[in-house]
Design brief:
The protein is α+β, with helices and mostly antiparallel strands. The chain is 29% helix and 19% strand. It has helices spanning 77-89, 96-107, 143-146, 149-152, 169-181, 193-205, 244-255, 275-292, 313-319, 451-470, 472-497, and strands at residues 19-24, 31-32, 35-36, 38-43, 53-55, 68-70, 115-117, 122-124, 137-139, 184-190, 212-217, 231-235, 240-241, 262-267, 304-309, 324-325, 350-354, 370-372, 377-379, 385-386, 391-392, 401-403, 408-410, 414-417, 422-425. The strands form eight sheets. An eight-stranded mixed sheet has the order 13-12-11-10-14-15-17-16, with helices on both faces. The protein has a four-stranded antiparallel sheet with strand order 1-4-5-6. Strand 18 and strand 19 form a beta hairpin.
Length: 498
């Protein structure tokens, strides 16, 4: 998994509000180790665009990938050669094919000789033990552990880059049961390694289990455990297959619905990622599926489960209007907050967005979900039907209340504010209606770009200097500083003479 790049704001075309806008993947875009870079532009509150630039699609933090290039920048041949070499050096040392061959050798070893290096996150063959002797490693790696690599590997929990929060068994089993009950036999698992390994494990144990899965993930460590027909190294933020055309063809073949085997895409992207970049990649995967179809499906969308927090609902619907959000709360093993069974505001905010008919998604009644005959979908126990809105309106599992002035249901902790003319928390700070600068009060810019700010700083610095010079301590500090500068200059002159 990865998260979308270039700074800390959510990308998107929002020129009126200002901020960072994602312009998308451009033909001939420069590349970093994570594939083609994305094009961005900064806009101010008046909607005026700044200078456009390319940044890494997979890393929002420049510390993780420092790639940056202005769109109109002329890059020298020397710099291009150095960049290509840098990109090559930052690719995995072993290819997917080599990892598959190593795995075949590893499973033939007796249990006592099966080792896994925890520091390098690598399966070790006996010839490599000496090289990793100073590292911590696990011994006696069982077949069960090899079939559950997500439990063997350390999760990459940097929410801006990888965010590998893994499904809890409850959610994973629910998704698999739902997929099989709906009649799907092929699952394109985009960034869902735990679901993929559950399908793979069940398929190897039960002869009558017909579901198959292909994992697309940016975490190349999984290539140690899966063949080239089971895993593709993939960046979901720029639709980039690291394995080139061969990997792309593997995905195409998998999406081909032979003998009526229906395909569904299940994706669980990092929550810090750019929704617009994700939507673009998912649409390309859908287009790939449509290309493989034999007529009769020209106007259909590839069935999909997009697992994401409920507060991104408006952004997802912006790109996929046919989607609807289910009330099912998805929980994770290695996330402190996103757990099942909590109440109130502590409940998991992660939901399932899908383009399937809501009434088809049957949620577990034993967990309190019930069917609303009016909305024709399953809802959580706290999600009560609002007669005025004519809908079950709650998003977070609590019972929401209807505000007559806002003409919609709001969270139970919100109250209507006459100053803001909308509902908000009772102790909120009312925003200025003009939305002006905090320093000068004028519209069109923020505090950080205020022209008065630099003048104010100069005046403050001059005032501090005057006060320091007038005080006894200040005079001494100024003299000491001048004396120190003279000593440094004298030392430099002596060094030059010698």
């Amino acid at each position: 998994m990865a998260a979308g790049g270039a700074g800390g704001q959510e990308g998107g075309r929002c020129p009126r509000s200002g901020g960072l806008a994602l312009l998308g993947l451009m033909p001939g875009a420069p590349r970093c180790p994570h594939g083609p870079a994305l094009l961005f532009v900064k806009t101010n509150q008046r909607g005026e665009e700044g200078r456009r630039f390319y940044a890494c699609s997979a890393c929002r933090d420049r510390k993780d990938c420092h790639f940056f290039q202005w769109e109109d920048e002329k890059v020298s041949e020397t710099s291009l050669t150095a960049r290509e070499e840098y990109n090559r050096n930052h690719q995995p040392s072993l290819t997917h094919r080599q990892n598959v061959e190593r795995y075949k050798d590893f499973v033939l070893l007796p249990l006592s000789k099966r080792r896994f290096c925890q520091e390098c996150q690598q399966l070790l063959l006996p010839a490599e033990w000496e090289k990793h002797s100073a590292h911590q490693f696990l011994c006696d790696i069982s077949t069960a552990q090899l079939k559950s690599p997500s439990q063997l590997l350390y999760p990459l929990e940097n929410k801006k880059t990888n965010a590998q929060y893994l499904f809890a068994d409850r959610s994973c089993q629910f998704l698999l049961d739902l997929i099989t009950d709906l009649g799907f036999r092929r699952v394109l698992s985009v960034g869902t390694p735990r679901l993929h390994e559950m399908i793979q494990s069940k398929a190897s144990q039960e002869e009558d289990f017909r579901v198959r899965s292909l994992l697309l993930d940016i975490d190349f460590r999984y290539s140690q455990f899966y063949t080239e027909d089971e895993f593709c190294h993939y960046n979901m933020f720029n639709h980039y297959f690291f394995g080139g055309e061969a990997a792309r063809e593997t995905c195409r073949k998998f999406l081909y619905q032979d003998n009526g085997e229906r395909v569904i895409m299940v994706t669980d992207p990092p929550f810090g990622g750019l929704v617009e970049a994700l939507a673009s990649s998912f649409k390309k995967l859908m287009a790939m599926w449509k290309e493989t179809e034999k007529g009769g499906h020209k106007n259909q969308e590839m069935p999909m489960f997009w697992i994401f927090p409920y507060f991104f609902e408006s952004r997802i619907l912006e790109f996929f209007p046919s989607f609807s959000m289910m009330d099912y709360q998805v929980d994770y093993d290695n996330h402190a907050l996103y757990k099942h069974g909590k109440t109130g505001r502590r409940q998991s905010p992660v939901r399932i967005f899908t383009n399937l008919t809501p009434s088809m998604i049957v949620l577990p009644v034993e967990e309190g979900y019930r069917f609303c005959a009016v909305c024709q979908r399953y809802v959580s126990s706290g999600n009560q039907h609002c007669e005025i809105c004519n809908s079950c309106t709650s998003k977070d599992g609590r019972r929401w209340k209807h505000c007559v002035l806002c003409k919609k249901c709001v969270k139970p902790s919100w109250f209507h504010c006459n100053n803001c003319n909308c509902c908000a928390l009772q102790n909120h700070t009312c925003e200025k209606t003009d939305g002006g600068c905090f320093v000068c009060g004028k519209a069109g810019h923020k505090r950080s770009t205020c022209p008065s700010l630099s003048r104010t700083r100069r005046l403050c610095q001059a005032d501090k200097k005057a006060k320091a010079e007038n005080s006894e301590e200040g005079k001494y500090a100024v003299k000491h500083a001048m004396f120190s500068r003279k000593k440094v200059k004298k030392k430099k002159k002596k060094k030059k003479k010698t």
